[in-house]
Amino acid sequence: MSRKKAFTLIELLVVIAIIAILAAILFPVFAQAKLAAKKTVALSNTKQLAIAMNMYCIDYDDTTEQQPSTSLDWWGPLMPYLKNTGILLSSERHDKDTNAARNAAGMYEISAYGYNWGPYAWNLGGLLVPPSAGSHSNNVGISTTAVVNTANTFVFGDTYDTPRATIGIGFAGDTWSGGSNGALRYGGTFNYGFLDGHAKSIKMKAGVWNQAWSYFIVPANQAYWGSYCADPDAVITNNAGQAGNFDSANPTYVCKDAVKWVVENIKTPCASGAKAGSSPDCAYSN
User: Fold this and answer.
1) Does a structural domain hold residue 117?
2) pLDDT in tens, 189-215
3) Cα separation of 210 and 279, whole Å?
4) Which of 106, 114, 198, 280 has the most other CB atoms within 10 Å of its CB?
5) Inter-residue contact 113 to 159 (CB < 8 Å)
6) Longest Cα pair distance anywhere in the chain, in angstroms?
């Protein structure tokens, strides 16, 4: 009479150990693949937004869209070209929007993307005519012929800003909780649509900037420091009053130098997990 051979305890433990090792190796790979897929969707969204802006410009005498005074936010004028509010959303942002007008338009979450008002503050140097008396709504768009390099000028991009969302360096981290560069959306890579219609993922770096809106977020690659500017070499008269240290040092500044100033003046390495309000101004190194 034959006897069936069973697993010994040691063999069972070896199998379990092998499974655990494989899981430890594969799970991070799966997580990275999932994050890459989400980033690809966001990149597609920003490209569609950039294309929508191009169609808008064709219909409105080559003029970029106006920042509306209505509560529909920057995306209101583009809705005839988008048709789908899902393009405005991201799997990485779920801030609820309780505004009645935006809810009626089908938006129940704040858009994950912001409009290019300029590198620093209210409509200075970006795709809107500079404001008068510090106004930051209902500013008209600029002629696309005034844009020096459409292939290197941001139109829309990832942001943590609230309604009337922008991609400005002192606004993009408005509702972000900070901690490290890796804690930024998509592991520290933002997606931007450019005025010529293409889109690109760009590595970002951040830091605490208590003098502004808690944090700064800027491209790590200097080649994009001027991408907030319709004319990177334009001289800006600073009437914003958004950050005491920047304002006092720069009553006028060259548009492309706004990011440069932040990088060169806020470079003390942040302590581990440093956050706005509980840490001095600093730059994340990881």
Assistant:
1) yes
2) 999 999 999 999 999 999 999 998 899
3) 8
4) 114
5) yes
6) 99
Say what the pTM is: 0.87
Q: Is residue 2 in some structural domain?
A: no
Number of domains making up the chain: 1
Angle at 86 between CA 84 and CA 92, to 5 degrees: 165
DSSP string, 33-73: HHHHHHHHHHHHHHHHHHHHHHHHHHHTTTBPPP--SSTT-
**Do residues 147 and 135 make contact, with C-beta atoms less than 8 angstroms apart?**
no
pLDDT tens column, 142-152? 999 999 999 99
- The residue type of 68 is P
Sequence-distant (≥ 6) Cβ neighbours of residue 80 within 8 angstroms: none
Q: Which tens digits make up the pLDDT trace of 27-55?
A: 676 566 677 788 889 999 999 999 999 99
3 found inside a domain: no
- H-helix segments, the chain: 9-59, 79-82, 100-104, 185-188, 244-249, 257-265
